[in-house]
Design goal:
The longest helix has 79 residues. The protein is α+β, with helices and mostly antiparallel strands and 433 residues long. Helix 3 packs antiparallel against helix 6. It has seven helices and twelve strands. The radius of gyration is 47 Å and the shape is elongated.
Amino acid sequence: MELLFQLILAFLLFSECFIETKKIRGVSMSYRRLYRERKSFLCMDGSRLIPFSQVNDDYCDCADGSDEPGGLISVSGTAACHNGRFYCMNLGFRPHYIPSSRVNDGICDCCDGSDEFASRMQCSNKCRMLGQKERRELEERMKAVNEGLLLKKELIEEGALIWQEKQTQLSQLQKMSEDLRIKVADYRKRKLRAEAEKERLEKAVKPDHNSVGDQSQWLGVVPRGSRTRVDKDKPSVIHGKEQEEKTEIQQGQNDPVRTPPHENPDKLPPVIRAAQGAVDSAVAELQKVEEAYDTVQMEIRELKEKLDIDYGPEREFVFLLSRCVQMAVSEYTYTLCPFSQVTQKNNLGSEVMLGKWGGWLGRSDSPYRQMKYDEGEACWQGPKRSTVVSLVCGTETDLKSVKEPSKCLYTMELQTPAACSLNTQQRSVHSEL
């Protein structure tokens, strides 16, 4: 009798385990203990306590859908809850959830085929094959990251040299600017001295206003009509008002027409011509020196702007200053010049600005993962064009993709060893696990 009792007890325990493992599907191992058959079931959001018989009964009792995971073997497909989820175990590959509405719908969503347990669809288990493929891809990505990290060290060394060259260039430009500033001041003084000397000579050789003949010799005077010179030494026999009128007429007729010396340089006295030449030479030299000074000042401003840019904690992105990358998409060619601009050119050669360097967009924990280029050319009846460039780890520096997800907003993916980091390595491993 005792032996019979033990056999019955063992059978009941076995039956309970068998029923439990057969009945519950679509639940992860971490939550399976909550679905052990008992008198009641507590919704995972804690909102309700329902009889366990209502679990997977094709009626949604819990607001979070936790009572309808789609796992009872007697159920041909549970979609009672719009937010219900079915857990794919996928041993050998990565597990994941699918909507309960996809359970027993004739389509193999889980690589182990567990979602089609009660349908006519015979799903083969592909998890091992997919897992092997993904592990190979992971190994390749890890290899690329490791190679990228080695290349990044070289880029950091290259960036240090570029940075030093830029600093040296700035020092040279600043010294050149100071020398030119002194020259500008000196040439301005030369110009003033030349103008003052010319003015002094003009006053020195300027004849008496009454000596019309002498004036005509250096001013290029052309007398008007037949003019009679008035001899002031002879006394006039005409007196009174008549004499005054005659004198005024004679003075008007004999008043010479003066031509400015610079309009008749050939008729100027040699000394004046030489003085005018000295002024012209001083003006020309001053203009050249001022233009050179302005050019150097502009180069200094542009170089300072470049040196003020954040190129990463180890200046690993400095090398991108001298590089532009291109990618052809359909009839357009996109060109990205990091830290400068983004352009788009069509087959006809027409170029459009898609944005100028506007800074980094990354989050605080990864500030160097995105670049912003804004203030591009305006779209027709739309906003100004802008571009967001995402940086990813790679062994080469080139564009991987260019898209226009919305009007006038472009996205690019730039792969470069400079974007590789230990965090990239850890993210790759974590995503696979």
